[in-house]
Structure formats: structure tokens, C-alpha cells
Amino acid sequence: MLKKILYLSLIVFISTSIHAQEKIVIENNDNYKFQSEKNKPAQTTTIQRSAPVFQPRWSYGGNIGMSFWNGGTDIYLGPKAYYHISPKFLTGIGVTYIYSDGSYWTNGIGGSRKYDYHSNSFGGSVSALYRPIPFLQFSAEYEGLQTEWRGVVDDSYWNNAIYLGASFVAGHFSFGFRYDVLYDSDKSVYGDAWQPFIGFYF
After folding, report:
1. Domain architecture of the chain: domains with CATH
2. Mean pLDDT of 166-185
3. Residue 5: CA atoms inside 13 Å, Cβ hemisphere, count?
4. Taking the model in full, what pTM does it have?
5. Of the chain's two ends, which shows fewer C-beta atoms within 10 Å, N or C?
6. What is the CA radius of gyration of the chain?
């Protein structure tokens, strides 16, 4: 009798275990239509938002420069078109107009003498700009100008300049300094190789 009870208990235990295992398998089967909602595996959809793809584009602006030295005045106007190759690199082409007015002294037999002059310069430029970080910009620019000089002796000549510059950028504007590595005091309309400038971009 005891053996029968043990056998019966063993059969009930095994049957219960198998049934429980089958129930768990069914409830976790996504294809079983009667499974309980609480035992369904949770599914999470992750939406990855990537940064906008950069599109090369054109923008327009240029530079405005002014300098004052020894009673002289230089005004620089340089409208430009910029092509944005990447978020950090730009190239530009432009036209240039410079007005210069001032005076200089010469020493002669009769002593020192003051002469007034003014000049108009026209030309063009090509430039490359690099922004390692959004608010800092480095630039290299070639500029060729035809200058018409009016003074004691009238003159007309061509002048080449290569400017290396650095500027801070804020929104659509930049402010900085540039240096003419080809500066020639006899031909340049500027009184110094260092020049401040203001740029704008739209």
C-alpha cells in the first residue's frame, strides 16, 4: 500500500512539473494567441536621431576694413561670395575697392616739405578659410590691385598682397587682424602690414 502511494505521489509530482514547464513555454511564446499580457516580452523601439547631413552651399558677405595712420585714412570694401565645402572649410572669391588719403614729408634743399595724396585701388581676391571651432577662424587670401595714385607725381601700378589672418566669429560677423606677407611700403595703399578687419556672412 505504501509503495502504491509513493508511486502515485511520484507520478503526480512529475505530471505537475511537466505541466508547469509546458505552461511557461506557452505563455512566453509570442505566437501563442492566448498568452497572458503580463507575461509577454516587452518590446522597445529605439529611434536613432543622426546629425543633419552637411550640404555644401553658397553664402555672401565680405570684409570692411579701416585704418588711420599719421593723418591718413584707408577704407577697404570687399564684397565676397563664399562656398562652404564643409562645416570647417570655406573658399571665397571677391572684388576689392580701396580708397586711401593722406600726406607724407620729403627732405630737400629747402628743408622738409609736406605733400598730400589720394589713391583709388580696384581688384579682386581669392581666399581660403578654416574654422577649427565655431567661433575661431583662420584665413589666407591673395589680393591683386590696380592703383591709381594722385599726388606730386601721378602713378599707376599693380600690387600683390597675401594676407594671413585670424578672427573671432559670432553669428554672421567676424572681427580680427590680418598680416600682408608681401607688404611693400612703396606700393601698398596701407601704412602698415598689420590691418584690422570686420567680416560678415549671410
Report:
1. 2-39 (no CATH), 57-201 (2.40.160.20)
2. 93
3. 2
4. 0.66
5. N
6. 39
